Amino acid sequence: MQKFKFFIIAISLGLSSSLCFAQEEKVNAESEEPKESEGKHTIAFFIGHARIGQGTDSEGKRQFNMVPSVSIDYNYWISTRFALGIHTDFLNENFYVESEEDGAPIERERPIAPALMGTYMLGEHWSFGLGFGGEFAEGEDYFVTRFAIEYGVEIRNGWAVLGSLTQDFRANAYNVTSFGIGVEKRFGN
């Protein structure tokens, strides 16, 4: 039994010391600047669906709405980790939402929602964005706060495939959760 305890302690110490060295090497690897691939400008095109939780039908009965959407995103990368850009969502269908004031249905006719976004690249694949903009459609316009998460994999020559999840909060109106898949091209210097 004594030999078994000694063996467990020796293995634990041996493994923990190798983990310490691995952490030191990882810190050194993280301190290197990632190489910038082809340029500071990116443009992305997404196809997806938008979920509208406060949706109704034309009579005002609550229902779950899923609307097809298209997004076009432009970013200028200030550094390897931070970008500023404009992300524009196009909802490709008319739909009804519940008014916050009196609960009456409001028709939204193919709204367009551009937002000025700041994006932070975390690691090689994940990026997180936060921005502000507006939603414009016939009738009322709304202020939009947008939060986005994207996962991208570079294919080659500045092309990448992306998955996107965004949450739009419309002031005094309704919220939209969008998910999509798209392609991105990096270009320019």
Order of helices and strands: HEEEEEEEEEEE
> Which overall shape is indicated by the principal axes computed on the Cα atoms?
globular
The average pLDDT is 85
Could you say which structural class the secondary elements and strand pairing correspond to?
A: alpha+beta
Strand content: over 45%
Percentage of residues in helical conformation: 10-25%
User: Could you tell me the number of beta strands?
Assistant: 11
Biggest sheet, spatial arrangement of strands: 1-3-4-7-8-9-10-11
What is the CATH C-level name of the largest domain? Answer: Mainly Beta
Can you tell me the CATH topology of the largest domain? Answer: Porin
Query: What is the oligomer described by this structure?
Result: single chain
| Main sheet makeup | 8 strands, antiparallel, barrel
Question: What is the topology?
Answer:
Elements: H1 2-31, E1 41-52, E2 55-56, E3 65-77, E4 82-91, E5 95-98, E6 105-108, E7 112-122, E8 126-135, E9 142-156, E10 159-170, E11 175-187
Antiparallel strand pairs: 1-3, 1-11, 2-5, 3-4, 4-7, 5-6, 7-8, 8-9, 9-10, 10-11
Characterise the protein shown here.
The chain is built from one helix and eleven strands, in the order αβββββββββββ. By secondary structure, it is α+β, with helices and mostly antiparallel strands. The longest helix has 30 residues, at 2-31. It folds into two domains: 1-32; 41-187, Beta Barrel (Porin), CATH 2.40.160. It comes from Algoriphagus chordae. Keywords: Signal. Residues 1-22 form the signal peptide.
